[in-house]
Amino acid sequence: MSADNPTLSMTRAQMQRFGQAALDTIIDHHDGLSEAPVGRASDPQMLKEWLDEPPPMQSSDPLDVLEELKNKALADTMNITHPRYFAFVPGPSNFASAIGDMLASAYNIFAGAWLGPSGIAAIEIKAIGWLKQLFGFSNGSGGLFVSGGSMANLTAIAVARHVKLRGNITNATIYFSNQTHSSVRKDLAILGFQPYQARVVPSNDFGQIDLSALLKQLDSDRARGMVPFCLVANAGTTNTGAIDPLTKLAPFCQREGLWLHVDAAFGGGAILSHKKRHLLNGIEQADSITIDPHKWMFQPYEIGCVLVRDKNHLADTFSVKAEYLEIFEHTSADDQQVNYCDYGVQLTREFRALKFWMSLKIFGLENFAGAVDRGFMLAEHAQHILQADPDNFWRVCTPAQLCTLTFAARALDKLPKEQAEAILIATVRGIMASGDAMVAPTRQDGKMVLRLCTINPRTRRKDIAFTIQLLKDEIQNRL
Ligand SMILES: Cc1ncc(COP(=O)(O)O)c(C=O)c1O
Predict the structure, then answer these.
(1) pLDDT at 331 over 60
(2) I want to staple 87 with a disulfide (CB 3.0 to 4.6 A). Which of 12, 138, 336, 440 is the partner?
(3) 149, 290 Cβ separation under 8 angstroms
(4) Strand pairing partners for 406?
(5) Closest atom of ligand 1 relative to the 236 alpha carbon
């Protein structure tokens, strides 16, 4: 065996041949998506053999590798950008951002620090600045792009812990509703909190935190010597799109001395809508906000964002000194310049800001607003179809909030719970296997219900009607 290319390089002609083929593959994917199946399961035998492949010792033709990728992996992927993918929170990304990501990777940009006269850091500063402006945060605030909502929540709670507790987490308690995303519990474990330090507060019928239950819990905790330090509020729960009463929560937290973190990973996109941004009123008073541009801001994975009202808190929490990093301090000449490694966990960071900046520049904010408004419209349209069903087949459990709604089939209400759930799961699995659409169930008060999340701006009204009819037919076939 011999090494025939130990510099791991390609000639210009090789790069052109491979690069063009890869780009054509991407363009075919984007162009043909609405006609393609939403997903297709891989052949288990093929997958098993492929998984057993030993590491390749010799070089291969790049076009053969691309073909292998297309045939064995990409053809069978679940297309979360597909117009009929309604499960969880879809990821309806866009081509402009995909090219941004490709450029960031191809230039292998280090986005951890302001090194030299840095147009790169300037793009992140600008993009964060636009988000600060949209969310009503002032000049003194700061933020950074991270991998997603989980990491943004982790970063914000780490800052809250640092500012409010100064490292002493004994007896500290943190509060959030029972509708809060599971990432918060994971983040708390990482940050050293025990499960008993997390206070899960009940929510009302609309999925919003129950303020009187919260107050009672705070009083009883203080009486027992606990140290309440933070409230995590929701601006769009994953299950039903509920928004906690943000305008009340900010003064409440000020009175109670709590850090207010708002998890707007799901609902943050609503800030782009002229018609609906009022739903997020009060968010501008939070101490920190999680935003997840790879959800309802239409970016490819991974890009989350955390904003903090006082940028000094970020640096106080995360900045550490090291001899080999000292040069960063000498290359940041003025207040405008930021070493993002001082704001979060990562030192080496990919250039996530590029895709966000590029897509905003190419499409413009007005088109992003239109895309978000479409999500609202599609959820309301789905609700209308369900309620207008001629057989009164459906029961809307939670109406369209943001771009999510949940519903149930009345015929299943009459069946024993286990039988009804078996039918629902078989229905959803059947539809998934057909590749016609992707819908996932969730639970409300322990009961399994169907859920649609309609954030994809390329979804058409007929995709919604088709999917609801498909669900009805599949359930009826199993009754
Ligand atoms: C409300 C909320 N917070 C946090 C997260 C976690 O975000 P990510 O999956 O980007 O880590 C999600 C994901 O769906 C979410 O809906």
Answers:
(1) yes
(2) 440
(3) yes
(4) 398, 451
(5) 1
